Amino acid sequence: MKGDTACTLLQPKEYKSGVKPVWCPGCGDFGVLGSITKALSGLRIQPENVAIVSGIGCSSRMPTYLNTYGFHGVHGRALALATGLKVARQDLTVIATGGDGDGFSIGGNHFLHTCRRNPDMTYIVMDNQVYGMTKGQASPTTDPNWVQGKLTPSGTGINPFQPLVIALASGANFIARTSSSDSNGTARVIMEAIRHPGFSMVQVLSPCVTFRPEQREWKHMLIPAPAAMEATSDPALAARRLLTDEGVYTGILYQGDRPAYQPKHEPSIDNIAELDEEFQI
Prior knowledge:
The chain contains nine helices and eight strands. 30% of the residues lie in helices and 15% in strands.
């Protein structure tokens, strides 16, 4: 598990901070918040043993709404911050949260290299295929034919970023897709993601009801992956599945066995004068 195992059973509501979310009514991120609290409760991880790290965006407000340690960073840098924290504090359960714009556009480089490094942490991406907080621009995962006002009146004409395929190719150790409308199912997947060693990537399709109201239909379109597509440890098989599933299958789609990245800690310097000597010219 990505952190200490605790004993006391807390109810999901005890992991909430009491700060009222400012998401739009009907936003899928409410369901993800509930899933995270259910997962932490189910794993019996104490709030003080959890750190939630985020970047910028609607979904990146998540640390504010949880009664755990949290860090609301800058745009696209959540994974860099979370990796550093996990390397320094192996005892913590570290979870990074964010959206498709934050994670795959300005944060795309960090995403690739976090998958490659494979630190023992979990990344939950609330993907709504739009920049919601900045009023509805197309994001990296937006369909090329999506028409939006003056910005993309004829669609983007650009193939969407394939986060799960990229995660697999870059070395992520656990890959899953869920729906925010299935709060309990998403909670179960997050639990497995936290348990699995190495970097776990969970894409949660989370509708933006304000700028993409048609996404309300996702809950009728998404289906659990059939038994023939159960999680595999074969990256070649997983790649073929992810490239042909058209983004509609949910569940755990890949579970690798790469060892997690955890460099050895060097002895700390107790005498500050010794540290000063290293910088003398």
